[in-house]
Design brief:
Length: 71
């Protein structure tokens, strides 16, 4: 399903459809975040820079992504 279709489904009156769309969007966002964090680290970004861009604390960004990112 395309992102626009998922976004539309998230507003569906049927809770089953809406919740499934929310779960799929959440998984997509997690994947996108991980990809961009890996890219940022590969380009030399600090955990503080990444955290600032994500609007979280440095420790939170590091805890969530450090095990996945190799640098």
């Amino acid at each position: 399903m395309r992102v626009t279709e998922l976004a539309e489904s998230a507003g569906d009156r049927d809770p089953g459809v809406g919740l499934a769309a929310v779960a799929a969007l959440r998984a997509l966002l997690e994947e996108l975040e991980a990809t961009h964090v890996s890219n940022a680290r590969a380009q030399g970004w600090s955990w503080e820079q990444i955290a600032d861009a994500l609007g979280v604390k440095r420790q939170s960004a590091h805890r969530k992504h450090a095990r996945r990112v190799r640098r």
